[in-house]
């Protein structure tokens, strides 16, 4: 499927591209306690995969710079008004302590415009195009990308797409440590409330109502 986009192709080189400022923490929500899943594709033109997935044997792990950003990244990629409460009970919250920030390209920096980027790097559904940018940054020597989250209309939260070996990794990258715990439903409910999204449980009982008399005659 061809998706119209105003995002151009990456340039021949990205040397000197602005780097993201150091960060103290990163956050990730997942249904599994294993924090470091690096998603990959079978090529930049693959029809499946995430925005910045790299071709195997490399991959990309998606995190956010705050719990709010992680909630948006995991639960609000598509526009929704209600989140099922029981889904939160199945999730884990990973907090990554960053002692040493790796070289990460800052796709939100103003000077990124001079390299041919526009804001569609964060929003376009042409993932084959965004993955070619990810490949170009990886080849330049960057170990990840700082980007905006398509589900965050305020564009205040930032996502961090970190590069690594494809698949599940049991250890954090150098300079980072992880703490995994069950997701705190109350914390997420506060985040969703600020975003105007409701948290509702699955109904335990569904009332059965007799059809109107007119419907019975048909």
Automatic annotation (TrEMBL):
Database matches in SMART domains: RES (SM00953)
Record domain RES: where: 40-174
Stored InterPro entries: RES_dom (IPR014914)
The protein, known as: Unannotated protein
Organism annotation: freshwater metagenome
